[in-house]
Design goal:
Elements: H1 3-13, H2 17-27, H3 31-34, H4 41-47, H5 52-62, E1 71-73, E2 76-78, H6 80-86, H7 90-98, H8 112-118, H9 125-132, H10 139-148, H11 150-190, H12 197-218, H13 228-237, H14 240-248, H15 263-268, H16 274-287, E3 293-297, E4 300-303, H17 306-329, H18 333-342, H19 344-351
Antiparallel strand pairs: 1-2, 3-4
Helix pairs in contact: 1-2, 4-5, 6-7, 9-11, 10-11, 11-12, 13-14, 16-17
Length: 355
């Protein structure tokens, strides 16, 4: 390694910014020596914990314009944006994105989120940053989050929901402002005495382009995607709390079918224990007073009442009780044992029914 690069690294490490500025100013070191896979002054400075003020100075000293570059060295990814994430330099992330860093860039066909999770750098604080800066979550990203931690995917859904709502509000406000401006734009333009007819047309065009650009910025929305198999997995484990948490963020039109939304899931489950799972699921909904939508028309909601849910629950309960009683009266031990194996919740409920 050249002596000047060694010296630069030394000054960065000890944070002697004054000496570094003098060195870069005197020797006029070429950019390709300061930014390459063997040494990248920006990535190295982020790694060494240099201040945001110093990072901004590096941009000036080295005349850095491109920030979407990256290197793979021994299967290790190095890039300004990625380094800012792994070293939790949130101010620098903001700065780089303003400078044009693409948060949706792919590194050898891997998304930023996938690379962070795969290499065990991901923490929950990253979710709000990704959502804020319009990271485009994919189904695979959501799968990676839920595999790492169920709470992570719920946090992502919550952040996305809030972000999308905010975008809708901004879009609606912008749309109203745009209409008002379109009404007044002709008057405003004509009031300018020195504007010719051609200038007037150009001004209108600029105004329209300005609002189109703003509109495009406003309408970015992430789509929440909940896998059918997530529900199946949690039904099999009888982790109903997680099912109901996911259901809160369900965006498909099928959600408005209420309990019928889960019909396909129950049909997919093992028939031997399907009704027992459904019975326990209904019990959880009733016991925890979960609101299940009945229908949704023009933003008008109506929820299934508790009586309806209890009737559904009792219907299954009675059928099971009749079947079990039949096996007992016939001394059909083989079926009794099979029934016990597949109806654990029913048996527990019958032994200790709630008061």
């Amino acid at each position: 390694m050249d002596n000047d690069i060694k010296e630069i690294k030394h000054y960065i490490k000890i944070k002697d910014y004054k000496s570094l500025e003098e060195l870069l100013g005197v020797f006029m070191i070429p950019t390709n020596k300061l930014q390459n896979k063997n040494f990248d002054i920006l990535c190295y400075s982020i790694e060494c914990g240099c201040s945001i003020k110093f990072i901004k100075q590096i941009f000036k000293w080295c005349k850095i314009e491109e920030v979407n570059y990256y290197y793979f060295i021994n299967n290790k990814l190095i890039s300004p944006l990625f380094n800012s994430f792994i070293y939790k330099r949130y101010e620098i992330i903001e700065f780089l994105i303003k400078k044009g860093a693409n948060i949706n860039i792919k590194y050898n066909d891997m998304t930023l989120l996938k690379y962070l999770i795969t290499n065990e750098y991901f923490i929950k604080d990253f979710i709000s940053i990704l959502v804020k800066h319009q990271y485009a979550f994919s189904r695979n990203d959501f799968n990676l989050l839920i595999q790492k931690d169920f709470d992570l995917v719920i946090l992502a859904f919550e952040e996305i929901t809030v972000f999308n709502k905010d975008i809708e509000n901004k879009y609606n406000n912008n749309y109203n402002d745009n209409n008002n401006n379109n009404i007044n734009s002709n008057k405003m333009i004509k009031e300018k005495k020195k504007i010719t007819k051609n200038d007037e047309k150009e001004s209108k065009k600029e105004i329209n382009e300005k609002y189109e650009k703003k509109e495009n910025e406003m309408i970015f929305k992430n789509e929440i995607s909940i896998s059918f198999m997530w529900y199946i997995s949690y039904f099999r484990k009888r982790e109903f709390n997680k099912i109901l948490e996911l259901f809160k963020y369900e965006t498909s039109k099928e959600r408005c079918r209420g309990l019928n939304f889960f019909d396909n899931h129950f049909n997919y489950l093992d028939k031997k224990c399907e009704n027992d799972i459904k019975l326990q699921f209904l019990y959880e909904i009733i016991n925890k007073h979960i609101e299940i939508p009945k229908f949704l028309i023009e933003n008008k909601k109506e929820f299934l009442n508790e009586i309806y849910l209890k009737n559904q629950f009792n219907r299954i309960l009675i059928k099971k009780h009749e079947l079990y009683s039949k096996f007992i009266s016939n001394n059909d031990y083989k079926r009794i044992n099979k029934f016990k194996k597949n109806n654990k919740f029913f048996l527990d409920f019958m032994q200790k029914p709630p008061k």
